[in-house]
Design goal:
It contains 10 helices and 5 strands; from the N terminus they run H-H-H-H-H-H-E-H-E-H-E-H-H-E-E. By secondary structure, the protein is an alpha/beta fold. The longest helix has 24 residues.
Length: 234
């Protein structure tokens, strides 16, 4: 539609091209890769929708065109619906049986894996835990309220805290990072090193996290989560 009336739609073309170029640049800067970077295209999609409406309107002059239009809209609606209810899973990667696994991805009540981890180990009194997972904070507070033993003086520190900003210094080797963590009393780390954790896609670019298997000991694990004790070398 833009190219048919290019002179009149030149401004549309410029705006869409700008958003497209910004998206290409953002792909390499976005932790989740192409899938999560596509939100930058949202303004361009709105502009393209306006243009597409004018082009699709011409199909209404033909009986067959109306049927094609309805089929396109129905297909796009169903696909969008499945994509939205199954996020963060891709509907194109869901295994057979498709409908059963779509339902599971969309509506399953997944267990609280942080609770499983906390209940499976006995942590040191006054321990500090480094984590990038927000549900660790809420789960710890709830377990304290329920009176679960051994968790009253446990403190959770987010990896984004200025207190531990040195973990993002690429000039400091992992052993030195561990030493600094020891100095502020951080003994443990809870994270998910799987590809589904967007935080770790980012964190894995830093030496301390990329070498986590060698500078820490696995104490407990659950799906999408593991508790590790940090090694402190003299």
């Amino acid at each position: 539609s833009i190219f048919i009336n290019f002179k009149k739609r030149f401004c549309f073309f410029v705006f869409i091209a700008i958003f497209f170029l910004l998206w290409l640049y953002a792909i390499g800067q976005t932790g989740g890769g192409i899938f999560y970077s596509m939100k930058i295209l949202a303004p361009a999609i709105i502009l393209l929708t306006v243009e597409a409406a004018g082009l699709l309107y011409k199909l209404t002059n033909f009986k067959t065109g109306i049927k094609i239009l309805y089929l396109l809209i129905l297909t796009a609606t169903i696909t969008s619906f499945i994509q939205n209810i199954t996020i963060p899973f891709s509907p194109f990667d869901i295994p057979h049986p498709y409908l059963k696994n779509c339902k599971r991805a969309a509506f399953a009540n997944n267990p609280n894996y942080a609770e499983l981890v906390f209940r499976s180990v006995s942590l040191e009194e006054g321990a500090k835990i480094l984590t990038d997972l927000p549900n660790v904070h809420s789960t710890l507070q709830r377990l304290r309220y329920e009176g679960v033993a051994g968790l009253r003086n446990i403190e959770v520190i987010p990896v984004w805290s200025p207190e531990v900003s040195f973990i993002f210094d690429r000039e400091i080797d992992p052993d030195a990072v561990s030493k600094k963590l020891e100095q502020i009393g951080v003994d443990y780390i809870i994270t998910d090193r799987g590809p589904g954790n967007l935080n770790y896609v980012f964190l894995g670019n830093y030496p301390f996290f990329s070498e986590l298997s060698t500078n820490s000991k696995l104490l407990a694990s659950a799906p999408f989560m593991e508790l590790r004790q940090i090694y402190f070398k003299p």
